[in-house]
Specification:
Blueprint (H helix, E strand, L loop, with lengths): L3 H30 L6 H9 L9 H14 L1 H10 L1 H23 L4 H28 L3 E2 L2 E2 L1 H5 L8 H25 L2 H28 L16 H5 L1 H16 L7 H22 L2 E3 L3 E2 H4 L3 H28 L12
Antiparallel strand pairs: 1-2, 3-4
Length: about 350
């Protein structure tokens, strides 16, 4: 169990992070796309598509963070100490986004201001998540299990780099794509047409950013791409980028195809899953690139086993109410639907 428990927990945390990205990503995308709403009524319509289900999505983020603390405390300590500022920015932006989401529906004179707050909170949260991703992928130099990047740069901004800024912007556009395809799925008429018009250029931008990030990876100290070309790994890993390209082409075609409203959103979800799979395959078995493996960062097997008992109860409950809430509120959302 000392060997398998860290692998199981790595999978659980990865699943939680992926579920958060997929489910809260489109809500953040709605905020990013808010400036494209023609008026306040149209923005109401956009927000109403996610109003019944948005606040349950953060559960997955809590699961990932709590699981990291319980199962991999050394990694948690390194990541939080190295990325304190972008993590803090993300949390503040998420709170700001949540407050704005609720207050906007109750406001009268300040409705436009809360709409702007919803948009800005979504953008900053998405950007911060991209920066965190970029900093992790770029690698964190360790000495004696402690992060030394900040000491090397004598700054709290050791995570700041051209690569992390690139991934921050890339995630903003990626979430915008999730938001536009969600609107295709959930709306009709003029709102859906706006979403379709936005989706095709967003597909091109997201593919371009994915290409830039992939081209940058071989030059990083974390050597994320090295595993792809070692020991013949390329031949069994190659289907991941090939599937991503095919998926992008199918998404491009589906974006303007009338009558198949679910296809763009499903294909966008698949695009994110393939990108996430490529990332995990690149960093494995490290949890903090370039050198901290999941076994080095793991808590004692007794601790991991104890927390796993709670997970056995908690995870099915989260999956159950998530599936139930989405099934209850499935279907199109009319423009005159109200939020209470």
């Amino acid at each position: 169990m000392e060997y398998w428990l860290p692998i199981i927990w790595f999978g659980v945390i990865g699943f939680g992070v992926l579920m958060y990205v997929l489910l809260d990503g489109f809500v953040l995308g709605l905020g990013i796309l808010a400036p494209f709403a023609e008026d306040e009524h149209q923005l109401d319509h956009m927000m109403n598509t996610a109003a019944p289900i948005w606040d349950g999505n953060e559960t997955w983020l809590v699961l990932g963070g709590a699981g990291l603390l319980a199962a991999f405390p050394k990694a948690y300590a390194v990541v939080l100490s190295a990325l304190y500022l972008p993590v803090l920015l993300m949390l503040i932006a998420l709170v700001f986004r949540g407050v704005a989401f609720e207050f906007r529906f109750k406001a009268n004179r300040a409705k436009k201001a809360w709409g702007l707050a919803f948009s800005l909170g979504s953008m900053f949260a998405a950007f911060a998540q991209g920066v965190i991703l970029g900093a992790l992928v770029e690698g964190m130099p360790l000495q004696g299990g402690k992060y030394i990047g900040g000491q090397l740069l004598n700054s709290a901004f050791a995570w700041f780099s051209p690569f992390s800024m690139l991934t921050g912007i890339a995630v903003v556009f990626g979430y915008a794509l999730l938001g536009s395809t969600w609107l295709i799925l959930k709306t009709e008429g003029g709102m859906q047409q706006i979403a379709r018009t936005l989706t095709r250029p967003l597909v091109l931008v997201v593919v371009a950013f994915m290409g830039l990030v992939s081209a940058w990876l071989p030059f990083l100290d974390s050597r994320i791409m090295a595993r792809w070309f070692e020991g013949g790994n390329f031949w069994w890993l190659a289907p991941v980028p090939l599937l991503a390209l095919l998926n992008a082409f199918a998404l491009w075609k589906a974006a303007m195809r009338q009558g198949r409203d679910a296809a763009p959103f499903v294909l966008t979800l698949c695009f994110f899953v393939l990108g996430f799979a490529g990332l995990v395959l690149g960093i494995w078995p490290n949890i903090v690139p370039p050198s901290m493996t999941i076994w080095e960062a793991a808590s004692p097997p007794s601790s991991q086993g104890f927390v796993a008992v709670g997970l056995i109860v908690l995870l099915p409950a989260i999956l159950g109410y998530t599936a139930w809430s989405y099934s209850v509120f499935k279907g199109k959302v009319a423009a005159d639907s109200g939020y209470h």
